[in-house]
Design a protein that fits this description.
The structure is a homotetramer of 321-residue chains.
Chain A (H helix, E strand, L loop, with lengths): L7 E11 L2 H11 L3 E6 L2 E5 L9 E5 L4 E9 L2 H14 L2 E5 L8 E5 L5 E5 L31 E9 L2 H11 L3 E7 L7 E7 L7 E5 L7 E8 L3 H13 L4 E7 L6 E6 L5 E6 L13 E4 H4 L12 H4 L10
Parallel strand pairs in A: 1-4, 5-8, 9-12, 10-17, 13-16
Antiparallel strand pairs in A: 1-5, 2-3, 3-4, 6-7, 7-8, 9-13, 10-11, 11-12, 14-15, 15-16
C-alpha cells in the first residue's frame, strides 16, 4: 500500500498552436460547438458549454501546429504550495508567471519530455450572461445546440521520448495514480504508454512513447460528450463538414473510452469521447498492465489501430527547421 | 474559500432489510443483472459487474423493508484514523466492529438522523474466476448480459428529520462538499435536502427531509448503467417483469441524473440512473441552492414529482409496532 | 382475411396556420433544425434534412393556429386515379387544384371531420445545392448540426367529432390498415382513437375524438429523429430555448413511439419522436384494440397522460368568432 | 416513371446449415436473445421477440455452414398467385411444397444464383403464452432481457456469380425497387452489388458479386435492435462470450446501416444492425448508384472494409468436396 498524493484537481487548459487560426477557431465554434471567451493578440480563448473556468482551450497563431503549454489546477492553495516545493526541488521547476486571462499566478515547469506546463489555483469561474445562461443552474452555460456540443475538456495525450522518466517525475512530484500502462513485456516492464488519474475520472493525462524519438510533441486533446450516441453523431457532423476522421468511432481497450479522432484544420488531433459510467473511486486501484503482445489484438472490438495514430504528432519533424 | 476534507473515497455498500429475501434476491440477480458474492445466515451479498469490492449490497431478511446500515470506504488508513478521531470527538461515534465478509474492521456511528453507518479502509478486491472474468482487464467482472446490467453502485438517499443537523455533522466530521441543496427560501436557508460529494462524482449521498418527521428511514439506493438508453431499456424490463415503476425515466433538475425509480419486491425503492458526462472536478465548487419555489417547476423537462416520492420511505410507520 | 388497398405512399405535407409567422419560422429553423425551401406571400415552406420532397411543412400567417390542409402522396398515377374515383363517388370529393410550389395537381376533399385534404402524385424531388449537399448520396440534404436536427416528417394527428365516421371513410376510400385503436369498451367497440398505416411505418395518420365535440381541429404533427437519445437532447434544447414542453420524453403504450410534445410559438403542438426499430410488415396485421379501461394505466412506463393532451387542439374555441 | 410491383410483404425466414447445431442454437438463444419455437428432426426453429411469425430462422444440422433456403411472404393470396405465375413463366419455378411448421404451402424456385427460395402467404401468427406474453399488446412476445435482445429479422445478403442476372430476375418476377447499387463504373454500369426494397424498409435483400465466382453462397442474415447503443452493447457481449467480431460497429455508407458482423459458432456470418429512422416511402425512389471508385473511401466514417467481408461466404470452397 502506497500513499498517493491528491493535490491536483484536474487538467485545466491547453494552449494549441495553429497555422490557421481562423479556420481552427471556426472548427471549434461551429463543429465542436464551443464558445469564445476572449480574443487577445494572436490568441483565441474557448470553452465548452459546461467547462466551469474561463477557458479550457487557447488557440495561438504559429507557423506550425503543436502545443505551447498545458495547465493543471491544484486542489487548494496549500496543495499548490506543496507541488511547487516539490517541483522546485526536482530541478524541473522554472518559476511563477503572472497568470493569464481567466486565472491567477501559475508556477511553470518543463516536464522531462520538454512540455511546458503550469499549475495554479486561483481561477475565474465562468459567469454566463443574458444570452448564454442555462435553464439549469447546475450547468455552466447554455447547451449550444450547434455542431457536436462538446460538454467539457476531458483529457490530454502527449508524446514523450522517455515515458519512464515522465511517469516517475509525474507520480513523484504531481501525484495521482497510474491507472493503466502499456509495457514492452512482463519481464522488462519498460513503459510505452501511461495514463494518470488525479481525481475519479480514470485519466486526465496520457503519455505515449514518441515513435520518432522526439520530445515536446502533442498527440491530442479530448472533449467529452454526454453519450456514445453523440460520438456517432459527431462522426456524421465531421463527415458532412469535410473534417478528416483518422479513426473511430470505436471503443478503446485501454480505459474503455468510446473515441473519435479527427484533425482540426490547423493539423492538431482532436478526440471526441464518452466514457460511459466508468469512474475509478478505489483509492488504491492497482495499475492495469498491458503488454505490447496484448495490444496486437487492436481496440476493444478488434479494430486495428491505424498506423498514423502511432506516428502522427504535432509538430511533425518536417515542419521544424 | 473554505478548506475541504477529502478523506472519504466513496460510498461502499448498503445493507437492506427485506421481508421477501428470496424474491428480492431474484430481483437483484435476474432483473438488475447483479451477481451473488456470498450467502451467510439470513443475508445475501451482491455486487454489480464492475463493482470492485466484494459486495455493494447486502440483503438481510427482516419483518419489514428498510436499511440496516451503510458504509463509507476511507481514502487511506490515515484518512480513516482522522475520521474516527473526529467521530469520537463528535459524540456520535460508537466503536469498532470486526468487519464483515469482504472488508476489514469498521468504525461505527449513528448519524444525527439515526442511521447506522460504518467507515473502513481494508477491503477485499473482487477476484473474478473462470466463469465471470471480463475480456477487458479493466473491468471487475464479465458483463452479465442479463436484465438491466447495472454497472456499479452510484449513490444513496436517506430520509432525515433534521436535515440541517445531518448536513453540519457530515461536512464537519466526514468532509466532502455540499454540491447542491434545497432550502425553504433564500431568507431562512433552512435545508430541505442536501447532496454530498466526496470524490468527483457529483454526489454519493443525498439526505431529504422526512415528510413524516421520522428518523432512520431509507429513501433509495442507486445503481448506474452506462447510458440513458439503458435506463429506457430498464423501464421496459421492469414493465415486462411486473416491477412497479414509481416514476421516470426522466431527468432530475438537481444533479441532472437521468432516473428510473422502481420498488424491489421487498418494498425498498431502487433507482437505475445515468449521469451522462457530468463530473465536478472544481475543488471549490460553490453549492447550487434551489428554493422550494423553484422546485415547483418539477423535474428538468417539467415532469411533476410524484407525491409518493416525498412520502414513501422504508420502513413505513404502519410496519413498525 | 380482408384485402387491403395500398394506394397511398405516405403523408406528404401539412399546412399550419400561425398567428406568429416569424417566431414560428425561427422555431422550425433554429430549434427543430429544418431548412426553408421557399417563401411565397404569407407562407414559408420548410423541410427536414432527409425529407425527399420540396417541403413537408407550410406555415401560413393567420389570426389563429390550426391546420389549413394536409396532403397524401399516392403510390402511382394509377393509384391516384383510383383514389380520386373513390372520393368522387363518396360524396366527399371537391375537385382538382393546380398544385403548389413543389408538387403537381392535387385532388381535394373534406374528410368527414371537415379537414381539407389533398392527394397527388407528381412531385418535385428536392435537389440539394453546393451548400447543403450531404456527404452521403442516400441522404436528401446535409445534416444541419443545428438544434434538434429532425430527419423527416413522421405522422399527423387530428381531432374529429366522429371518429367512427372518419375511420370508415378512410379505410374505404383511401385504404391502408387500422393498426391500433382505442374503443370505449369491448361490447360497444365505439372508436375513440384510430391509427392508420399506409406503408410499413406503423402509422402515418392518427385521429382522436375531439373532447369539445368540434371538427376540423389539429392535434399535432410529428418529425422523426434517429434515436431516443436525440429525443432526450431535444427536450434539453426546448428547455434551454424557452419552448413549452407539454409532456415527455416518454414511451407511448400505443404504437410504442418515444415522444416529446412541445408547443411552437404560434400555438400548435409539435411532436419530436423516435420509433426505434418498430415496423409493421405483416400485410394482414390484426388491429390492436385498447379499451378506455386499459388506457387508465397511462403511458408505457406509467406516466399519466396530461389533461391538456386530451383537450388542447388548434384552434381553441375562444379563438374562433 | 416505371410502374413497380408491390406483391412481396417482406423477407420471412432463412434456413441456415450448421455443422454445430447445439453451439449455434446456444448462440442464437443466449447471445442473440432469441426464442426457440420448435425442434423437429435435425432442425431448430427460432424467432426474435418481436417477429410476428412462428419463426424467422431455422437451423439445420449439416456437414458445412451455408443457407438451405430462404422465404418471402407475399402481400396477399392474389399477390402470391401473380408471383407464382411469373415464376412459372420465367423458367426458374420449381413447384409447390406442403409448407413447414409455421406456414402453409409455398412455391419454390431457384434464383439465377442457384439459391433455393420459396414464397407463401398462409402463415401462423405467433401466439405468446403465460411465460412470454409482453406487457405491451403490440409486441409479439416478451422482451427477453437476455444477451443482445434482437427484435426482428431485418434482411438477407447473398453472394451471386452473376449479379446482373439476379437483379433483372428479381425486379421482373418478384418486384420491389432497386434502392442502391454498386456498379463497376458509370460507363459500363455493370452491377457488383444490389439492394432490393419490397416495403418501406430500404432493403430486405442484398446480393453481392461472389469473389470466387461461385453460386448459391450465403453472406449474412441480419437481425435488428432498437438503437445504435444496443449494437455497441452487442459488440461487448460478443467480446465477453468469445464470439468472433469480423468488423464494426460502424456505419455503412450504403443504406446507412449501423452494423456489427460476427460469426456464429457454425461459421455463418450474422449481422446485428440498427437503421435509425431511415425509411424510403418515396414510391418512385431513384436508385442510388455507387461506383467501385467511390467505394474505395471505405465505410461512412472512413473504416476500410475488411478483406474477409468480400471473400468469406458460406460454404467455403474447401468445405465442398
Amino acid at each position: 500500500m502506497k500513499n498517493h498524493l491528491w493535490d491536483l484537481a484536474h487538467i485545466a487548459h491547453v494552449e494549441l498552436f495553429t497555422p490557421k487560426l481562423e479556420a481552427s477557431t471556426r472548427f471549434f465554434v461551429d463543429v465542436m460547438g464551443m464558445y469564445i471567451s476572449a480574443v487577445k493578440g494572436d490568441s483565441v480563448y474557448l470553452r465548452a458549454y459546461d467547462d466551469y473556468e474561463h477557458h479550457t482551450l487557447k488557440l495561438t497563431a504559429h507557423k506550425h501546429a503543436g502545443m505551447k503549454h498545458f495547465a493543471w489546477r491544484a486542489k487548494s492553495p496549500e496543495a499548490l504550495q506543496r507541488r511547487v516545493a516539490a517541483l522546485q526541488k526536482s530541478g524541473y521547476g522554472m518559476g511563477w508567471n503572472d497568470g493569464d486571462i481567466g486565472h491567477g499566478p501559475a508556477y511553470e515547469y518543463h516536464s522531462p519530455s520538454g512540455h511546458l506546463t503550469e499549475i495554479y489555483f486561483e481561477t475565474e469561474k465562468y459567469k454566463s450572461g443574458a444570452s448564454d445562461t442555462s435553464a439549469l443552474k447546475n450547468t455552466a452555460s447554455k447547451f449550444p445546440a450547434r455542431g457536436i456540443n462538446v460538454r467539457r475538456i476531458d483529457h490530454l495525450n502527449l508524446f514523450a521520448k522517455d515515458v519512464r522518466a515522465f511517469r516517475d517525475f509525474q507520480l513523484e512530484n504531481l501525484g495521482g495514480i497510474l491507472t493503466e500502462t502499456i509495457v514492452d513485456n512482463l519481464e522488462d516492464l519498460n513503459p510505452k504508454a501511461v495514463w494518470f488519474m488525479v481525481n475519479s475520472k480514470s485519466y486526465d493525462l496520457a503519455v505515449t512513447e514518441d515513435y520518432l524519438g522526439m520530445n515536446d510533441r502533442f498527440h491530442h486533446v479530448t472533449y467529452a460528450v454526454n453519450s456514445r450516441e453523440e460520438v456517432l453523431i459527431a462522426a456524421d457532423i465531421c463527415l458532412e463538414n469535410g473534417i478528416f476522421i483518422e479513426t473511430g468511432p470505436h471503443k478503446h481497450t485501454i480505459q474503455q473510452t468510446f473515441f473519435l479522432y479527427v484533425y482540426e484544420p490547423g493539423g492538431n488531433r482532436i478526440e471526441i469521447a464518452n466514457t460511459t459510467a466508468r469512474l475509478i473511486v478505489d483509492p488504491d486501484y492497482e495499475t492495469v498492465v498491458w503488454t505490447l503482445e496484448e495490444r496486437k489484438k487492436g481496440q476493444a472490438w478488434g479494430l486495428a489501430t491505424v498506423p498514423s495514430f502511432h506516428t502522427k504528432g504535432t509538430p511533425m519533424p518536417e515542419e521544424l527547421d
